[in-house]
Amino acid sequence: MYFFVFVAAAAALYFAVAAWRQPRLGVFVAAAAWLLYAVYEHFIANGTLCDANCNIRVDLLLIWPLVCIASLFGIYAPGQWPRAAKVFAGLGVALFASMAAMSLYIVLVEGPAAEQAAQEKSCAEGQSGLECPPVSSAGSATGAQ
Fold it and tell me: Most CB atoms within 10 A, among 49, 73, 99, 137?
């Protein structure tokens, strides 16, 4: 995992040197993006943000397009991009937007629905708690008489 930290630090150093030689906003943004990514990966690698069992890194689907777009801004001045870079940036923005929309849907819709289903299941199994509505046995008692 520290391999990603070294790669990100090397990319940040590359863009920092490029910013020193020819200061442009895009180069500073790229250097800052790679530096922030290196710090983030360091916290992932040492176990601060993620334990040792997190093999699947879905967060990279959101982070990598942003870092790549920032790198394209650092390499090419806006407005002087070749066609392939414009297509790549557009695909990265579309991927980022779709992943953000999917994440919001999971957090705002699926999460509460799953919690409510688990609560209803535990109430149906006879576990009582503050969340469970009181069970009235009056209906079954009158039907038996």
Answer: 73
Range of 96's domain? 2-110
Return the sign of the alpha-carbon dihedral for residues 64, 4, 24, 80: negative
DSSP string, the chain: -HHHHHHHHHHHHHHHHHHHHS--HHHHHHHHHHHHHHHHHHHHHTTSSS-TT----TTHHHHHHHHHHHHHHHHS-TT---HHHHHHHHHHHHHHHHHHHHHHHIIIIIHHHHHHHHHHHHHHTT---SSSPPPP-HHHHHHH-
Is 135 inside a domain boundary? no
85-139 pLDDT, tens digit each: 677 777 777 776 777 777 777 777 777 777 888 777 777 776 665 666 665 555 5
Q: Total structural domains in the chain?
A: 1
Residue 127 CA to residue 70 CA, distance in Å, equals 52
